[in-house]
């Protein structure tokens, strides 16, 4: 497997994740060859300095044929402000094989608030793991989010203790109210919050509320 | 310092005792999740501020939860030579007054829950005398905690420290006879003798299945392997119980001690504690506890100069109920998705990274130090003939007092609900209850005389499980409950076995059509057939038991379903 250049000064802004995105369009067996070739071109463009986003963009515009070009440009538009150097740092903190994947994903989520798809590309590269394996972990474990959280997060207890005490009704009502309100509020359902004595329990932006209090608070947020 | 000999432990015990019964006043705040949810964090800060401001000589300390979740936030005051006073439902507005009362030597009578004159650790060595000399008159009107039904009827063996010691101070755990069992095992017992003692105790797994722990250890001990592991299952994903969370947050060292002893017994060098991904506070406290144990050479190389080395790590889970199943948990530790594997080989032969591994529930492991100190025979005398020891039970649902308690196995469920839960909230009648989490049967009130016992609950179509006790009042719709648990399993099925993955989905559809008034008699028999197929052909307990709630509702509350069906010829 080919090492991703470790020189941290070499990439600027999102250029590295853009570069990795290009490589995703290349069949897996040919990636290493392409990586080397593209790096050469990029180095020429940057004249030995830092590789900037527009350098990568030029490569796409000049070299890549359709339909790959459109796919890549579309994927570029999804790259958010994810600092790939941070991702690389996190991965380095966990030396080892597959058993480090879940801790790495937890650390990435702690850093960015979610697990950005471009970070998965880097993990798959550095840990020689299939992207599909990582994607499975991220989507099947409930701990991981694949999209950035909204401004407000409402964590509702969907445990049986809360359900029996009217939590089920509240949850249904919340789902109806929040779904119609765009992305301002993310509703998260969990199995037990550990404070059954105030059930039905909800956490709104880190603060615990009980049933009717929570409904009032959410009404307040929705009216903002 | 490093502990090399048993006498070094003694020195630290004295330090710890000085912290608990300090010549200064000790003010403790219950800061497990249940307390924090009710504002205990703010109360802790306010107490520290007031103590400083009013120039009261006192230590303000965070402790865990003593089980009285309904009375949180709980603040306790221990003044030298006076009984330990427990205040409940302390609000932030009362903090100033509370500190003033300490200064003036008075009591806040409206907040007082109980007093403790002294307490005796079940292992005999951790004896604390709070009240010195004659009891002052002002305290005489307060009930002593051993006279309160809530404590009188409990048997606090493993939860004895919760709410008393600070989970962040190893000295306080050692003061309560902590790590004495480890010292005994390492210096006076062979690994075989430890396994023998555990076998003699007849303790069974506290996670749900009830497999004899001694047999598990023996199998792992006998297995060939250059490396072996001990894994503590702290996955606790049941949707109604937080008592293991509370336990991890209140007394992490008792679990660590149990794990090290397990490692010594089976010949393992490494251990992992797998913790539910949401239990951040528990993980933080566990990690700091491990660090402290390492500093004292109770973990690491050549523990207590015995030649035995053991290392321990906390692993955060990914948030999947299935990871409570031991083979799924091991897969998760290895970095894959938590999917159960068919057995044999059992983890004791071929577990983590292909090496022999003991996987025990954290509650099982917390019992180990006691068994070592007091003997397997003593332990087997508690509880019933086949279900020995105590069990932590968490009460939730329509209960008047939400709480968690530790009771000897064999106690009647009715008693648990009446004594500790104070019956049903709002004066209503109990309609049904469920033990053992979502895989347990929903049983009608007429079966309340059942005892906490692996076999008896199993015969009644339920299970002891990990100790949740959900209570439902007369207003609860049983069809809705059946749907709730079926939805739960539909979410949590890992999808490996067709019978579970598709079976649960079909049960969901059928239930929905019954709820919508489209159900027929044929649906009932179809559900029974699906349930039977799931039980027969699923690889793990999740699939085998996913249909238990719906089947139990059909059996015990047939009218609620039949009333919804389309009548023949209609």
Describe what you observe in this structure:
The complex is a heterodimer of chains A (224) and B (570). Chain A is an alpha+beta fold. Helix content of chain A is 54%, strand content 9%. Chain A is built from ten helices and four strands; from the N terminus they run ααααααααβαβββα. Chain A has a four-stranded mixed β-sheet with strand order 2-1-3-4, covered by helices on one side. In chain B, the strands form four sheets. Chain B has a five-stranded mixed β-sheet with strand order 2-1-3-4-5, with helices on one face. The longest helix of chain B has 18 residues, at 498-515. Classes of the chains: A alpha+beta (224), B alpha/beta (570).
Distance from N terminus to C terminus of chain B (CA atoms, Å) equals 82 Å
CATH superfamily of the largest domain in chain B: NADH-ubiquinone oxidoreductase 51kDa subunit
Radius of gyration of chain A: 22 Å
Number of helices, counting only DSSP H or I runs of 4 residues or more of chain B: 24
> What is the share of helical residues of chain B?
40-55%
Tell me the domain tally of chain B.
4
**Which parts of chain A are unreliable, with pLDDT below 50 for 5 consecutive residues or more?**
none
What does the average pLDDT of chain A come to?
85
Q: How many angstroms does the end-to-end distance of chain A come to?
A: 51 Å
Query: Which sequence of strands runs across the widest sheet of chain B?
Result: 2-1-3-4-5
Mean pLDDT of chain B: 94
Output the helix-strand order of chain A: HHHHHHHHEHEEEH
Major beta sheet, strand line-up of chain A: 2-1-3-4
Which structural category fits the helices and strands of chain B?
Answer: alpha/beta
Number of helices of chain A: 10
**β content of chain B, as a range?**
5-15%
Structural class of chain A: alpha+beta
Tell me the β content of chain A: 5-15%
């Amino acid at each position: 497997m080919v090492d991703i250049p470790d020189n941290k000064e070499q990439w600027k802004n999102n250029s590295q994740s853009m570069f990795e995105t290009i490589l995703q369009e290349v069949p897996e067996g040919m990636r290493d060859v392409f990586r080397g070739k593209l790096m050469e071109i990029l180095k020429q463009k940057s004249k030995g300095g830092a590789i900037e986003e527009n350098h990568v963009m030029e490569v796409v515009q000049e070299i890549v044929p359709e339909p790959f070009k459109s796919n890549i440009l579309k994927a570029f538009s999804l790259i958010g402000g994810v600092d790939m150097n941070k991702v690389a740092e996190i991965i380095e903190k966990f030396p080892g094989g597959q058993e480090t994947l879940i801790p790495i994903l937890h650390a990435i989520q702690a850093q960015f608030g979610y697990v950005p798809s471009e970070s998965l590309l880097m993990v798959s590269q550095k840990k020689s793991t299939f992207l599909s394996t990582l994607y499975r972990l991220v989507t099947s474990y409930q701990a991981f989010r694949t999209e950035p959280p909204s401004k407000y997060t409402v964590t509702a207890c969907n445990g049986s203790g809360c359900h029996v005490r009217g939590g089920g009704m509240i949850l249904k009502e919340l789902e109806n109210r929040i779904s119609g309100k765009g992305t301002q509020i993310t509703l998260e359902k969990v199995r037990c919050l550990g404070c059954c004595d105030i059930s039905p329990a909800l956490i709104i932006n880190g603060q615990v509320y009980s049933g009717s209090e929570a409904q009032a608070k959410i009404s307040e947020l929705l009216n903002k | 310092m490093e502990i090399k000999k048993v006498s070094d432990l003694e020195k630290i015990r004295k330090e710890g005792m000085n912290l608990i019964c300090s010549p200064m006043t000790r003010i403790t705040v219950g800061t497990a999740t249940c307390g924090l949810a009710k504002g205990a964090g703010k109360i802790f800060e306010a107490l520290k501020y007031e103590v400083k401001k009013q120039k009261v000589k006192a230590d303000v300390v965070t402790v865990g939860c003593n089980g009285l979740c309904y009375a949180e936030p709980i603040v306790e005051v221990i003044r030298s030579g006076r009984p330990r006073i427990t205040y409940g439902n302390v609000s932030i507005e009362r903090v100033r007054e509370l500190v003033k009362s300490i200064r003036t030597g008075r009591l806040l009578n409206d907040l007082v829950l109980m007093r403790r004159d002294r307490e005796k650790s079940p292992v005999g060595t951790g004896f604390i005398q709070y009240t010195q000399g004659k009891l002052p008159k002002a305290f005489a009107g307060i009930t002593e905690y051993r006279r309160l039904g809530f404590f009188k009827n409990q048997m606090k063996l493993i939860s004895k420290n919760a709410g008393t010691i600070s989970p962040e101070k190893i000295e306080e755990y050692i003061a309560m006879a902590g790590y004495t069992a480890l010292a005994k095992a390492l210096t006076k017992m062979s690994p075989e003798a430890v396994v023998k003692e555990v076998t003699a105790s007849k303790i069974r797994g506290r996670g749900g299945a009830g497999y004899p722990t001694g047999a598990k250890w023996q199998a792992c001990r006998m297995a060939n392997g250059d490396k072996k592991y001990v894994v503590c299952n702290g996955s606790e994903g049941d949707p109604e119980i937080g008592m293991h969370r509370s336990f991890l947050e209140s007394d992490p060292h008792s679990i660590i001690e149990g794990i090290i002893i397990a490692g010594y017994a089976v010949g393992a060098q490494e251990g992992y504690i797998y913790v539910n991904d949401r239990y951040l506070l528990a993980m933080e406290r566990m990690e700091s506890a491990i660090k402290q144990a390492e500093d004292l050479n109770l973990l690491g190389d050549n523990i207590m100069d015995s030649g035995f080395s053991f290392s321990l790590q906390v692993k955060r889970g990914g948030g999947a109920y299935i990871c409570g199943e031991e083979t799924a948990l091991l897969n998760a530790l290895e970095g894959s998705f938590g999917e159960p594997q068919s057995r044999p080989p059992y983890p004791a032969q071929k577990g983590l990274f292909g090496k022999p591994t003991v996987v025990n529930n954290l509650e099982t492991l917390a019992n180990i130090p006691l068994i070592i100190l007091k003997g397997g025979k003593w332990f087997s005398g508690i509880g019933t003939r086949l279900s020995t020891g105590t069990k932590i039970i968490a009460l939730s649902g329509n209960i008047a007092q939400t709480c968690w308690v530790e009771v000897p196995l064999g106690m009647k469920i009715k008693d648990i609900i009446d004594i500790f839960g104070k019956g049903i909230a709002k004066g209503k009648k109990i309609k049904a209850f469920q033990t053992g989490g979502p895989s347990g049967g929903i049983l009608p009130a007429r079966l309340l005389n059942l005892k906490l016992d692996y076999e008896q609950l199993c015969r009644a179509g339920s299970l002891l499980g990990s100790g949740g006790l959900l209570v439902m009042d007369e207003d609860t719709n049983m069809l809705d409950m059946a749907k709730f648990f079926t939805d739960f399993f539909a979410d949590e099925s890992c999808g490996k076995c067709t019978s579970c993955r598709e079976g649960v989905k079909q049960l969901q559809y059928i239930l929905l059509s019954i709820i919508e008034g489209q159900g027929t008699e044929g649906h009932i028999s179809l559900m029974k057939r699906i349930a039977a197929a799931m039980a027969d052909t699923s690889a793990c307990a999740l699939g085998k038991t996913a249909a238990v709630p719906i089947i139990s509702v059909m059996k015990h509350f047939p009218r609620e379903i039949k009333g919804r069906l389309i009548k023949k010829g209609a």
